[in-house]
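User: I'm curious what two different proteins look like when written out as structure tokens. Can you demonstrate?

Assistant: Sure. I'll show them one after the other, since each token string lines up with its own sequence. Here's the first protein:
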Amino acid sequence: MQDDNAPLWLPRLARQGGPRFLQIADALQAAVADGSLKPGDRLPPQRHLAALLDVDLTTVTRAYDEARRRHLLEGRGARGTYVAAPKVELTSVLDLSMNTPPPPEGVDFDDLLKQGLSQVLMRADAELLMTYHLGGGSDSDRKAGAHWLAPMFGALDAGQMVVCPGAQAAIAALILALTEPGDVILAEPVSYPGLRAAATQFGRRIIAVEADQHGMVPERLEQACRQHQPGLVYLNPTLQNPTAITMGERRRKEIASIARRCRVRIVEDDPYWLLADAPPPPIATWAPEQVYYISTLSKCLTPGLRVAFVLIRDPHERERFLVALRSFALMVAPLTAALATQWILDGSADGLMEGVRKEARLRHRMARDILAGRYSGAGDGLHVWLELPGYWSSAQLARAAGSEGIAVTPAEAFSTGSESVNAIRISLGSIKDRSRLKAGLQRLSHLLARRPEPFSAAVV
């Protein structure tokens, strides 16, 4: 029971409210936000607060540490702990340009990281974590990959998995392994920029194939296959980057049939499948020998792991892929691979991903409310594809937004052909704080509602 003379901001800790130290830190943040606590106010000593809340001292210490990390508190030595003055933000750019998972509410990522690494170091030989691994992942890492892909495919042979240092490395290695200089790669008119970067670097040509509201058009794909004899077809069929379109099951089956009939190979880059609401099975389900399936942890968990899993059924093709991969990325860092494996096998990854999924959907609802009729997202995933009114061009809007401290990505960054699309991609996960995201979306909405001003160069 709390003391009647306790501070007004003191939280009533809920049994199902998440970690108690976070509940205390959140209460501090709320009290600062609503003015109940003001800069310069002295907080109770940690032991006294622990007694008031009936928690151990460590819980309060962690709460104060978290509040300091949020720049809410400052220590003044023997005089105690005080509410800090507002931090002056020298850089006010609101980044809506980078597709990263949003921080999930109620998940203590620092604690998750510490526990995961502790388990890795307890169970693994430190020397093995600091040496070369040339086989596309350890047996445990490949088993973790098979487990990660089980929602898409069911039971898989772990021997068919290859562990890579991220999806971009996997895409580049597949281009090197399966095509020759000058070969054609077919892709949708707007597609993941990393594909274009790798293809250009390796001297391959990208040709755009028409897409509609369901994804790449099968008739156009078959026509392009017969005309250009492509080395690869690249597809991102679930919550496509950047359009956020999810290809339906019927369309996926049609494309798989074309791949078999035309004997063309498909790179199915599928980073968002686990974030989507009831997505169809992957294209690889219907053309397992034609499709190379990539699933990265960067979009569901965190980019810092730099781990992606590639499903390659044919052992000869796997070896060719590994040879190509080793030419520029010898291996996944064993420590981060082991951490990813630990999280996947002990269930931590599922909990983190569920938190990311919930937070992403909450942010989509926010975007839908603020952007109103302009919102064209799917309600899940990490981004929104915003078609612009005719008085704005995508490049023009990106510049205007940048001048107001908002970073967005114009359609030109995703173009694979000569046709222009007047749209921007808005990423909802890269701004950690929800209130700052809301402010960025509101500023962007106001910008969209007015016509662009004539450009004039500054003279100094």
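Here's a second, unrelated protein for contrast:
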Amino acid sequence: MDLGLAGRRCIVTGASRGIGRAVAHGLAAEGARVLFVGRTEAALRDAARDVPAAEFLVADVTEPDAGARIVAAAVERFGGIDVLVNNAGTSRATPIDQLTDADWDEQWQLNVRGPERLMGAAAPLMAAAGWGRIVNVASSSGKRPSGRNAAYSVTKSAQLALSRAYADAYAARGVLVNAVAPGPVGTGLWLDPGGILDQEAAAKGIDREAALAAAGARVPRGKLGEPAEIADAVVFLCSERAANVVGAAWSVDGGAVPSFI
């Protein structure tokens, strides 16, 4: 199936690893030109290596000028912007009574203000050209709040609302905004030493293997997702083939959230 992405000019945040890296590679495989955005130059260089027409930019999406700066870089390097994937984010397993003001602020900036600034900079340019795609990588915990990190869940819910607000504002001008909501995914966030898996194991007093089995058991599919599985849904939503999908919040979670969406 031709997704109509050849030559499209794309931004992917959080592109140095995990879901973002898989999305950037998936778009590039369809012939798109991709700006890999992340906070670490060495990791970005590694992620963009051997990817045709790839560029990278070191940026922290939580900085107030980051949205304008990232979009300006894409316009300078590619001549415009057609696709934006807001993927940057992180989380830690932290009980609600241990969350600090700094924790809440971090998640708000990562999941709401950062994406909003990027959409605010990119969507008008897309609308002026009459075509655009924006995909926000949210979380299943934005649909069914998780006790693992309430600040993350609450701001992911806000991100879904933000995504819908932009969808309503820009659809008539050819800019289609959607979101995906992954469940647990086998990325470094979960599986690296000290990641969520180890944090949950320590909190429950069990070993790593038992924690992994327990995480998989909470998903009807029976296991964590793979980054490429999430990326496939994102790339489709970025494509010509998703021309009648607007304001959606697709669950790509192995069945973790029992809903029809």
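A detail about the second structure: The chain is about 45% helix and 15% strand.
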